[in-house]
Write a structure and sequence with these properties.
InterPro entries: NMN_transpt_PnuC (IPR006419). The protein is mainly α. The chain contains eight helices and no strands.
Length: 245
């Protein structure tokens, strides 16, 4: 995701906010790594990171600064990790099914169905319009070329929603969108003038998303445990697709 945000900050507080921005970026990278491992701890870590983003956005406003996404989009971003944690808790499988106190293993993975593809295609424009309307109602300036900024930032937030919803439902294809989005962000930070820290963090994001994507891809096409599909069905998951013969 986009770790570095342009903020208008009160005099004397820029250094502290940049430090918090770097910290939340590292927390976000940790969340990506944990998603790759398919552990439920990814969602609490993501919630912490989103809460830090919220602070970065709202604190400058106390001194009249401009902040992005401090409306419907940030509320959704804070709710989605809670929803994802709840979904993954129901899908996690115990290491030893006969031992109620056994540790929980990684969640099972689904392949997207036609209905889920259709839902994603509906959620993306609906969320974009919702976030645009929310920003306009909050007084987002519309003069000049800022209409393009409004559309792009709303689309950005909507893509994040689709990715997190896909992960919450353990859908493998969500990583396609996340990887494409991470690559676009890295390319943008390299083409347009960006701080070296931003480029470094975007590059690290691409590498970690690639790692997580490959981990899920391996489980989907080369399940390590022969009985994993049946166990996943019993726990409410969907069977992984085996490689073609």
């Amino acid at each position: 995701m986009d770790w570095i945000m342009a903020l208008k900050v009160p005099d004397g507080s820029a250094g502290a906010l940049v430090s918090v921005g770097h910290l939340q970026a590292l927390v976000g990278l940790l969340a990506v790594f944990l998603f790759g491992l398919r552990t439920r701890w990814a969602w609490p870590v993501l919630l912490v990171q989103q809460a830090m983003v919220f602070l970065l956005l709202i604190i400058p406003n106390f001194d009249g600064g401009a902040a992005f996404f401090v409306n419907a989009s940030i509320a959704v971003a804070l709710l989605l990790p809670c929803y994802g944690a709840w979904r993954w808790r129901a899908a996690a499988l115990p290491v030893a099914p006969g031992d109620p106190g056994a540790a929980l293993a990684a969640v099972q993975i689904r392949r997207a169905t036609g209905r889920q593809w259709g839902a994603a295609l509906l959620v993306l424009p609906a969320a974009t319009l919702l976030f645009m309307a929310s920003d306009v109602q909050a007084g987002f300036p519309m003069e000049g070329g800022l209409m393009t900024v409004l559309v792009l930032q709303a689309l950005y937030a909507a893509v994040v929603v689709v990715v997190y919803l896909g992960l919450a439902h353990r859908i493998y294809e969500a990583w396609w969108l996340w990887l494409a989005f991470a690559v676009v962000q890295l390319a943008t930070s390299l083409v347009f003038p960006s701080p070296p820290t931003s480029q470094l963090l975007n590059g690290a994001t691409v590498l970690l998303v690639l790692f997580a994507f490959w981990r899920w891809h391996t489980v989907v096409y080369y399940p390590p445990v022969p009985g994993a599909e049946a166990a996943g069905d019993a726990a409410g998951g969907a069977p992984a697709t085996s490689p073609p013969a």
